[in-house]
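Protocol step 4 of 6: structure prediction from sequence.
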Amino acid sequence: MKPIFHIIIGVVISLLLWLHPEINYLAVLVIFLSSVLIDFDHYLYFILKKKDISLIKAYNWFLKKRDFLISKPTKEQKKYKSSILIFHNFEFLIILLLLILIHEIFLWILFGIIIHLILDFIETFKRGFKNTKMSLIFNLIKNKNKKEFNF
């Protein structure tokens, strides 16, 4: 999903959550920021893969990669490596759940990330995209014998 949609929906949901009496402005800010900044792992992945720090090139590379995969049938999509994204996975959610025991701010971060991931899943199914990012460990294992993107 394009960042602008994450920003718009993150703002709307964060403001709606602000109506709850136990959610203050700091919680709203943390929820919003975590719902958008989770995508920083895409940028990190691009930097490691392409040895380039251009944010614009990273954005365009991921769009090109997404469009390429979406244009392929499911069987063909599965032949390509998934991006290894450190924040878009089940394992990171477990870490956040454990960190909630330390401080409640991690609960707000978890809310923001769940908002983001729900939006990502909606787009995944809407576009017929089958290359998912559910588990970091699973993606590392399944990527072993798959094709690399050469663009």
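Step 5 (inspection) to follow. The helical segments are 3-17, 25-37, 40-50, 55-70, 74-77, 90-99, 105-127, 136-142.
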